[in-house]
Amino acid sequence: MDMTQDELKGLKIKFNNEGLVPAIAQDHKTGEVLMLAYMNREALERTVKEKKAWYWSRSRNKFWMKGEQSGHIQDVKEVYYDCDIDAILLKVDQTGPACHTGNRSCFYRKIKI
Amino acid sequence: MDMTQDELKGLKIKFNNEGLVPAIAQDHKTGEVLMLAYMNREALERTVKEKKAWYWSRSRNKFWMKGEQSGHIQDVKEVYYDCDIDAILLKVDQTGPACHTGNRSCFYRKIKI
To answer: Labelling A100: which of A35, B29, B81, B100 has CA 20 to 30 A away?
Structure first.
């Protein structure tokens, strides 16, 4: 089921009304879910080409390579897309914490159930 | 960091312009990422209360309890929210496949990198 970059260009990803798709970053060794961010088509293409995670920042309205400031980069090992082609899953080798708070994962707080 | 249901009501979740927040469902035992769907506040409150995963269907414009038709329910073990309070992570015990295609996970296709 693997595809080439040309096939990637043809992949009918369902971007939302902002032209974005949610991307989950997961530690490829431990399975820990590290963060959720957004990609547009170019961020996905950069990620696939460079094997570093690129996202689109909704607050700053620009591309960012995860870790470009902090050094906490994500080396991308595998890229999956879901059945509806409206979500992306990256399996990454995370350098340092994924979260800007210094926590390993952005999902460090729990709702009591 | 746990919270009561009253505190949940006060939690300032950043819903998007459709009133939704993305929710990742992850197998609580294996760590496999199973799917990504969307919740509004009521879906999250139902999930926390009933310990079954409830989502908001954007295509059908209604609540759905995962598995209400298929029987492939998600027993919710833990609920996390992220640093920006704009994404949810459910750790679940998944009955049967999570994906409507019959695959265990919705992320069964890979982009070659």
So the answer is: B29
Contacts with B112 from chain A: Cβ below 8 Å: 2-4
Instruction: Please give the single-letter amino acid code of residue B51.
Output: K
What is the ipTM, given to two decimal places? 0.94
CA distance B111 to chain A (A): 5
- Which residue, A113, A111, A94, A110, is CA-closest to A34? A94
Inter-residue contact A104 to A65 (CB < 8 Å): no
Residues of chain A with pLDDT under 50: 1
Q: Do A87 and B100 touch (CB under 8 A)?
A: no
What is the band of B113 on the pLDDT scale with cuts at 50, 70, 90?
confident
In the block, residue with structure tokens 């496999």: B32
Q: Evaluate whether B91 touches B30 at the Cβ level (below 8 Å).
A: no
Collapse the DSSP code of A74 into the 3-class scheme (helix H, G, I; strand E, B; otherwise coil) and give the result.
Answer: strand
